[in-house]
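User: Design a sequence. Structure:
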């Protein structure tokens, strides 16, 4: 599994004085133990997210590095990947506009390249309506991915350009349950279209519930349906492969100290069918688990 970023990043809701955020993270994904269900053994990764907020503007930057190891190296070789991400968001009263870009580079074997290196552009819109102790938000994120030296699903004899479009509308209901407790509930749909795939369209849905209590927070996140080569987490999580995901369960727990230092740990369990870049088929459904730790500091 090649995931460039796997963090629960919350878009700013108020803007005032300048603020800088730094968030280093490290994690690993362990794939299904069955050789029939997964050729990959594990993926380790680390990265750094940084943001700068001033008045009506937010600038986000992220770098991630990952290394994927195969169980057998007779045919498929281990590879590295780097992802550079930049995103800009502007607020006009209660309306947010964002634009961003991923630049992904990996070292997959040319003969067995899945999607390989590529670029992803994305734009977003969000509207917030405030009512006393609650907020209702809605918006849409759109993505366009282009992998120019990828292999299709029918032949490894030559590379092709694979273009993927994704539209992700969402709805968020936030309410203050008490002076020390708030809850955010999010519904999101992901519609993906990939003209170069054997099956062109994929549809998935996400349900996210975030509860804040004093200095702690708990995030429960579920994705169901069918997702292939998708993007989640407001553009910061990229599944740049041909694996077919049918379920992702994620739980995150965080604690914030008074000096704006936040600790976060998350665990995700995914059900998916891994794409074999050698035989060009989807393997039987398997399971992978991901654990991630991060520290965020704001100043």
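Assistant: Done.
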């Amino acid at each position: 599994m090649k995931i460039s970023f796997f963090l629960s990043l919350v878009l700013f809701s108020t803007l005032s004085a300048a603020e800088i955020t730094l968030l280093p993270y490290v994690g690993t994904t362990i794939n299904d133990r069955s050789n029939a269900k997964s050729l990959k053994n594990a993926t380790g990764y680390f990265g750094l997210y940084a943001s700068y907020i001033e008045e009506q503007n937010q600038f986000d930057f992220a770098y991630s590095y990952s290394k994927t190891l195969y169980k057998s190296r007779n045919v498929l070789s281990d590879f590295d990947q780097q992802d550079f991400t930049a995103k800009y968001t502007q607020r006009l009263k209660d309306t947010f506009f964002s634009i961003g870009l991923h630049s992904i580079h990996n070292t997959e074997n040319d003969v067995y390249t899945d999607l390989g290196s590529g670029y992803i552009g994305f734009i977003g819109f969000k509207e917030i309506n405030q009512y006393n102790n609650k907020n209702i938000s809605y918006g849409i994120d759109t993505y366009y991915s282009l992998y120019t030296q990828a292999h299709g699903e029918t032949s490894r004899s030559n590379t092709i350009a694979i273009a993927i479009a994704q539209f992700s509308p969402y709805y968020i209901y936030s309410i203050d349950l008490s002076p020390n407790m708030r809850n955010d509930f999010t519904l999101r749909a992901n519609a993906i279209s990939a003209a170069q795939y054997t099956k062109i369209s994929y549809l998935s849905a996400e349900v996210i519930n975030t509860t804040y209590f004093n200095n702690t927070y708990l995030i429960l996140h579920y994705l169901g349906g069918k997702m292939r080569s998708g993007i989640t987490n407001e553009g910061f999580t990229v599944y740049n492969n041909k694996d077919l995901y049918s379920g992702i369960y994620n739980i995150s727990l965080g604690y914030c100290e008074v000096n704006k230092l936040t600790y976060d740990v998350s665990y995700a369990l995914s059900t998916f069918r891994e794409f074999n870049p050698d035989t060009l088929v989807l393997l039987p459904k398997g399971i992978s688990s991901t654990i991630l730790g991060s520290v965020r500091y704001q100043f």
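The CA atoms of residues 35 and 50 lie 38 Å apart. Residues 1-16 have pLDDT under 50 and may be disordered.
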